[in-house]
Structure formats: C-alpha cells, structure tokens
Amino acid sequence: MMQNLLSSSLLSWADDSSLNVLIAAVIAVLLGLLVHRLSEKMVLRLTRSLPVPSMTARQCSGPARVLMPLLALQAVWHAAPDTFPLIDGVRHVNGLLLLVGLTWLGVRAARGVAKGVISLYPLNVEDNLQARRIHTQTRMLARTVMFIIVTAGLALMLMTFPGARQIGTSLLASAGVVGIVAGIAARPILSNLIAGLQIALAQPFRLDDVLIIQGEWGRVEEITGTYVVLKIWDERRLIIPLQWFIENPFQNWTRANAQIIGTVTLWVDYRMPLAPLREAARHACEAALEWDRRLCQLQMVEAGERSVQLRVLVTSSDSGLNWDLRCKVREALVDVMQRDWPGYLPVSRVEVGERFGDGSDSGSGGGLLG
Length: 370
Hints:
Strand content: 5-15%
Radius of gyration: 37 Å
Largest sheet: 5 strands, antiparallel
Strand order of the largest sheet: 4-3-2-1-5
Shape: elongated
C-alpha cells in the first residue's frame, strides 16, 4: 500500500505539467528579483534629489525585494492546474506571505515618509520651534498609520482561514457582550491611540519642549504610541502615559517660544539703599552671555516686619540659560552685600530691659539693648 502511494506521488511529480510549473516558478522568482533590481536603481536615481521620495524608496527596498518574487509566484500558482500536488495549500501560503509582505511594505513606506519629512526640518538650529512641531506631528501620525496598517494586515490574514471566518460569524451573534468585554480590555490601547492623535493634531507639547509635571522639570525626549519620555534635568527619565496629558494640566515653558522671564529673590535690611544693588544686577546681566538683553529689573516687592524682599527679573532665550543667569545674578548681589554692605543684611532686633511700676530705679540695673 505504501509503495503504491509513493509510486503515484513520484509519477505525479514527474508529470510534465508539474515539472513545467516548477520551472515556471523558478523563472518567475528570478524575473521578480531582476525587475526589483532594475526598478530599484531607476527609482533611487530619479528620487536622488528629493528627500522624502528618496527616503521612502530606501525604506521600501527590502519589502519590495520580497514582494516581487511573491507576486510572480502568485501568478504562477494561479495559472497552475488544480492537479498540481498541494496546490491549494501552496496558494494559501503564498497569499499569506503576500499579505505579510504588503503589510511590511506599508509600514516601511509610512516610516520612510516620516523620516523624509523629519530630515527637512533639523533640530540643531537656533529657532527650532517649527521643526519640533513637524517632528512631533510626523512621528505621532506615522505611528498611528503603522498601527492601522498592521491591524488591517492581521485582519486580512485571519480572513483567509475558513475557521477564522466561522469564529467571526459566531462572535457577531453575541456582539453585545463581546463588544463590552473587548471595549473594556482594549480601553488603555484605544485611549492612548486617541490621545496620540489629539496630541499630534492639537500640539499641546512637542519634542524638546520644556514641561513641568508634578513638580519635575524636564524636556520631552521621546514620544511613542503609548507614553512620553521626559528627561529630567538630573538625567532621570519620567515616563508618562499619553492619556495622562489629556486628563491633567501641566506647564509648557516652550509652547509658543522658548523665551522666559526668571526671578531672583533677595531679603535685605530696611536701611539698604537699592541703587547699588540695581547697578550690581545690571552689571551681572551685561557680563553674562545667557542674558538676551530684554529685561533686567530690580524691584521691592514686599516689606516685612524685619526686612524687605527684593526681586530681580531677568530674561533669557530659554529656561536652561535662564537658570544659569539667575544663579550668576544671585551670586553677584550676595557678593556686593557681603563686600560693601555687610551691615545691611537681614538682622533680628531684640529689646531687653525691665520696667517697674513706680518708675523708680531699683538699683539692680536695667537697660535697653538694640
């Protein structure tokens, strides 16, 4: 019995039609590779001076190298006779591989377009506000498109299996319960996806923006499809889900531009004249490279019981420079106080003495110290 099966199988494989199909398949693969090679050179040459098409073509080169032979093989398998051994399984597998290749091609094409657009707007320029806006929108939209492409590809691959179609039909019969369960289970994914679209379109923050979140100061280092990485000033990383930004307030110090006004606070005695401190603050600002020459102003903002509070307003082109400028101005003011006006630093006055009811001196002594 086994011998008869083997003999029949060998005879079928040795059949002329089957041999012709195999030869045609080999020729189709070689032609597909040749067409890919020639088309790749031509496309790269035509798009050499165009950043976006050139980057897209480079990203799609790998998937296209796989797709070309698969498309040629698909034509061969469909033209092959139904008597070819395992032809149904071969067609199904080739179709699945085609869907995988098309999904891969779509993902790489979206990534190539995103990289091409980003390359047109470098971040290493002085005024990179527009570049950061484009980077953020492009990255978020590209990730959303890639997610949709992968989801659609998986759905199409599942639909090629008859069993999967039957499962889908049975699930549709109980769509209410399944829909609720699926909605609850997919809520974090869907909420982050929707939040990502909102952030990409509304632009509440961008890459390299300075944010204050729960008292932490940092720059937006990375925006993924589910979370944002905030690089804290001390090189820690704060990971925040995208949905958090939609539901909670936060500070963005570089929303419209990076310019910022910083404050330096100083407490001094009532007797301290303000002119020397104003001059010291002005000299400190003029000597600092971090000052953008917009504002350097000293004001008395509060008069307390023992001392007065002075505030110096200084401006810089971004928050990092402003921090350094505030430190320099603060050090200059304290240095002037210590060197030229040490007696006018904040002091506490205490009155010590005894008072007698008849106003006479008891002989034991009394006095007033100030």
